Amino acid sequence: MPKPPLLNHTEIDQSLALLNTDALAPWVVADGRLSRRYEFKSFIDAFGFMTQAAIACEVMCHHPRWVNVWNVVEIDLLTHRAGGITHLDFDLAGQMEPLAKKLLA
């Protein structure tokens, strides 16, 4: 699979603005990663989100660094083979957001 191009600062800012238009809480860029923290009502909701998101990750062959502690899921996205943030990170975040919304509503 070819290495996707890194996004420049302007492209990252534009992509963040689009992604955060409908987000319940903002995605941010921190330490060179696209990051988001979800707080669900329960462990089951958090784990259910991760299970659904895992399918999207596998289909895209793009896997997050994520941590789950009880009802919280913290996600960091970075395209390792490109060495930074690419469109793949925003594409995956865009697929995760509606999955989380179903469980956060």
Commentary on this structure:
The chain is α+β, with helices and mostly antiparallel strands. The protein has one domain (27-104): Gyrase A, domain 2 (2-Layer Sandwich). The chain has helices at residues 9-19, 43-60, 87-104, and strands at 28-30, 33-39, 65-69, 72-77. It has a 4-stranded antiparallel beta sheet with strand order 1-2-4-3, covered by helices on one side. The radius of gyration is 13 Å and the shape is globular. The termini are far apart.
What is the element layout, followed by pairings?
Layout: H1 9-19, E1 28-30, E2 33-39, H2 43-60, E3 65-69, E4 72-77, H3 87-104
Antiparallel strand pairs: 1-2, 2-4, 3-4
Helix pairs in contact: 2-3
Beta content comes to 15-25%
- As for the CATH topology, it is Gyrase A, domain 2
C-alpha-based Rg, rounded:
13 Å
Number of strand segments: 4
Low-confidence stretches: none
Return the CATH architecture. Answer: 2-Layer Sandwich
- The helicity comes to 40-55%
Note the main attributes of this structure.
Gyrase A, domain 2; about 20% strand; single chain; globular; about 45% helix; alpha+beta
In short:
By secondary structure, the chain is α+β, with helices and mostly antiparallel strands.
